[in-house]
């Protein structure tokens, strides 16, 4: 099982704050592609974290059971 959490505009678009997804040997990119199609997220800008660490290369990242994936709004710095 994977836990997916949504924040900011992504949570507004999905109308949920998170969901559990049955684990089936996915890459992070495959999961993101499925979520973008399911919720029509293509127009949104967001970062992706797995187990509280930002992941830049979603193609090369293989998920494992019990991972927590978060779709986060863009960060503003100061």
TrEMBL record:
<dbReference type="Pfam" id="PF02597">
    <property type="entry name" value="ThiS"/>
</dbReference>
<dbReference type="InterPro" id="IPR012675">
    <property type="entry name" value="Beta-grasp_dom_sf"/>
</dbReference>
<protein>
    <recommendedName>
        <fullName>Molybdopterin synthase sulfur carrier subunit</fullName>
    </recommendedName>
</protein>
<dbReference type="InterPro" id="IPR003749">
    <property type="entry name" value="ThiS/MoaD-like"/>
</dbReference>
<dbReference type="InterPro" id="IPR016155">
    <property type="entry name" value="Mopterin_synth/thiamin_S_b"/>
</dbReference>
